[in-house]
TrEMBL record:
Signal peptide (from-to): 1-22
Signal found in the keyword field: yes
Keyword Zinc: no
Protein name per Swiss-Prot or TrEMBL: Parallel beta-helix repeat-containing protein
Domain Right handed beta helix, first and last residues per copy: 93-219
Highest taxon above the source species: Bacteria
Alphabetically ordered keywords of this record: Signal
Pfam family, one: Beta_helix
Length: 400
C-alpha cells in the first residue's frame, strides 16, 4: 500500500479554505438520546465545522443525514476503542448515514449492521471517505444492506483506506459519477467487492479484493441518467480467492456474477486492467463481456470496447467456473479454463502471456446456448494509456 505525501501547498490551501469561525462540535455516545444528539449536531453544523464523535459504541435506531457543505464528521477510530455506530436495532430500512452536501470529509469511524446501505452520498461533490469500516458482522447474508460505501451522482470522489464486509450487492460502489479514486482499501465477503458503474474517469488501485463473489466490477447499465461508462483504470490491486457463493437478492444485476470472478468488465469503454496480482479465482481472473439481458434503451451501448489487459500476475484460476456449461468446458480442457474469459463480443486487447478462452459470441443477441468455446491468443496495439485521475487540490490534504 502507498503512503500519500501532503505537500506544503496543499496544506496551505486547506487552511485558507477553512472559515475563520469554524468550530469543533463534540458528541458523546453516552446516554439514551445519543441518536438525537448526533443528528442535532449534523443539523446545526456550519460550513467549516468538525463534528467529533467520542469513543464508544453508539446504539442507533434511526438513520442519520448531513446536508451542510464543508463539514467533517470524524471519529476516534474504527476498531475497539473507536467510534462505533451500531445500527443493529435500526427501525427503518434506510441507510445508516446519508450525505447530500459538497466538500464533506467522513473519517475514522465504523458503521455496523445497517438495514439498508451503510454510508450513502448523493450529489455530493468533492467527498472524501477515509479510514472507515462498514460491516455486517454476521457475515454474508441476503438480508444485509446492499452497499457499504455508496457515492452516486457525484463529481470528484476519493475513497481511501476503508474496510467493507458483508454487503449483499457491492462493498464499495461508485455509480453515475465522474473523476473517482478508490485506493488502499479492503473489500471482503461482499457479493461485489468494488464496483464502478456508469462512471467516467476512475482509478481503482492498491486495494485488496478477496473472498467476495466477484472482486472488482466495471459495469455500464441501461436506463440510467448517466450512461457510456469509460476511462477506468484497475491497477496494482490484489484480487484473490473470490470464492463466496453469490448471496445477492434475486433480480439484482450482481446476482448473475459467477462465484470466483476476479475482475469483470461489462459493456464499458476504454478500460485498462494492469499490474494486478490475481490468485485462486475459480471462474476467471478477468472476464470481459457484453450486456446480455433484455433491454429497450435506444441510447445504450451493450458491447465492451477497447478493453486492455496487460502486465498482470496470474496465479491459479478457472478451476471451478460457475457459469452455465463452465464445468463441462473445464473438464474438456483438462480441469480448468484459462485465466482470461471473453464472451467474444466487442473488442479486447489482452497482452498477458496467459491462456484466453473465447465463448465465440460475437454480439449480445447470440444466446449462450450457441457458444462455441475456443482458446484464442489475443493481441494488438493498445490505444494510448489513460491518464491518471487528478483530484481537486485540497482533497488529498484531508486524508493526512
Amino acid at each position: 500500500m502507498r503512503f500519500h505525501v501532503l505537500s506544503l501547498a496543499a496544506a496551505m490551501v486547506a487552511v485558507a479554505a477553512s472559515p475563520a469561525a469554524a468550530k469543533t462540535i463534540n458528541v458523546s455516545a453516552e446516554g439514551a438520546d445519543a441518536n438525537e444528539k448526533l443528528q442535532e449536531a449534523l443539523i446545526l453544523a456550519e460550513p467549516g465545522d468538525v463534528v467529533q464523535l467520542g469513543a464508544g459504541t453508539w446504539t442507533l435506531t434511526d438513520g442519520l443525514s448531513l446536508d451542510v457543505d464543508n463539514v467533517t464528521l470524524r471519529g476516534a477510530g474504527t476498531g475497539e476503542g473507536g467510534s462505533i455506530l451500531d445500527f443493529s436495532g435500526q427501525q427503518g430500512a434506510g441507510e445508516g448515514l446519508l450525505v447530500t452536501s459538497d466538500d464533506v470529509l467522513l473519517a475514522n469511524f465504523a458503521v455496523l449492521n445497517t438495514r439498508g446501505d451503510g454510508i450513502k452520498s448523493k450529489g455530493a461533490d468533492r467527498i472524501v471517505y477515509n479510514e472507515l469500516r462498514v460491516e455486517w458482522t454476521a457475515g454474508p447474508k441476503e438480508a444485509n444492506g446492499a452497499y457499504g460505501i455508496y457515492p452516486v451522482e457525484s463529481q470528484d470522489v476519493l475513497i481511501d483506506s476503508v474496510y467493507v464486509r458483508g454487503a449483499s450487492d457491492a462493498g464499495i460502489y461508485v455509480g453515475q459519477s465522474r473523476n473517482i479514486v478508490v485506493r488502499d482499501s479492503i473489500a471482503t465477503e461482499n457479493v461485489a467487492g468494488i464496483e464502478i458503474e456508469n462512471c467516467f474517469d476512475a482509478d481503482v488501485h492498491d486495494n485488496i479484493a478477496t473472498k467476495n463473489t466477484g472482486g472488482i466490477l466495471v459495469f455500464d447499465l441501461p436506463n440510467l441518467p448517466q450512461q457510456g461508462g469509460h476511462n477506468v483504470r484497475v491497477f496494482d490491486n490484489v484480487v484473490s480467492d473470490n470464492s463466496t457463493p453469490n448471496f445477492a437478492p434475486k433480480g439484482n444485476i450482481v446476482a448473475s456474477v459467477p462465484t470466483g470472478t476476479g475482475v469483470l468488465v461489462m459493456a464499458n469503454r476504454n478500460v485498462e486492467v494492469f499490474d494486478n496480482v490475481f490468485e485462486d479465482n475459480g471462474t476467471a481472473n478477468v472476464m470481459i463481456v457484453g450486456y446480455r439481458y433484455d433491454q429497450k434503451d435506444p441510447k445504450y451501448q451493450p458491447l465492451p470496447r477497447q478493453i486492455v489487459v496487460r502486465d498482470n500476475a496470474h496465479g491459479k484460476a478457472g478451476f471451478a467456473p460457475a457459469f452455465p456449461g463452465g464445468a463441462e468446458i473445464a473438464a474438456a480442457m483438462g480441469g480448468a479454463i484459462p485465466p482470461v474469459l471473453w464472451d467474444g463480443a466487442g473488442d479486447a486487447i489482452v497482452l498477458d502471456d496467459v491462456g484466453i478462452l473465447s465463448l465465440g459470441l460475437p454480439d449480445v443477441t447470440t444466446p449462450q446456448s450457441e457458444a462455441k468455446p475456443v482458446p484464442v491468443k489475443l493481441g494488438g496495439t493498445p490505444p494510448p494509456a489513460l491518464p491518471a485521475i487528478v483530484l481537486p487540490e485540497g482533497m488529498e490534504a484531508k486524508v493526512q
